[in-house]
Amino acid sequence: MITWIHLVGRVPLFLCSIAYLALAGYTAARWGPVDPNKIYRTVFAAASLAIIADVVAMTLLFRKPSYLPTVIFLDIVACILSGISIPVIALSDYNYADDPNPHLHGWEKIDLVLFDLNIAIICERVLSMFLCGLSRRGRSDLEVSRPRSRVELEDSYDS
C-alpha cells in the first residue's frame, strides 16, 4: 500500500519538474540570445536532477528498496540547487520587482512563474524525501511483521 502511495505521489512531482525544465528552456531560447543572464544554469541543473530523481524512484520503486538513500541524496542536491536559483532569478537584470509599471511584461511573467516553480520544486523535494522515508519505514514494518518460514527459523537458531 505504501509503495502505491509513493508512486501516486511521485507523478505530480515528475510533471512539475518537467514543467520547470520546459519553462527554463523556453526562457533561455526566447531571451537567452538577447540577454545571457536569462539562461539560468542552476535552474536547468535543479530541474534535470529532480527529473532524474523521480525517474529513478518510479522505475526502482517495486524492484529494489535499497535505492531510497540515493533518491534522498538526489533530492537534497536538487533542493540546494533550487535554493541557489532563488536569488539568481530574483536578482536577474530584468527583475519584476524593480519595475515601476504595475503591468508585467511577458518576460516578467515568465520569471515570476519560474520563481514560483522554483519554490514549488523545493517543497516537492522535501515531500519526496518524506515519501522515501515513509516507504522505507513501511517496508521495514512489513519485513518485521511477515511470518518467517521454517527454514529461516532453523537458520536463526543455528547461528
From TrEMBL:
It comes from the Eukaryota. Keywords: Membrane, Transmembrane, Transmembrane helix. The chain crosses the membrane at residues 39-62, 71-92, 112-134. This is MARVEL domain-containing protein.
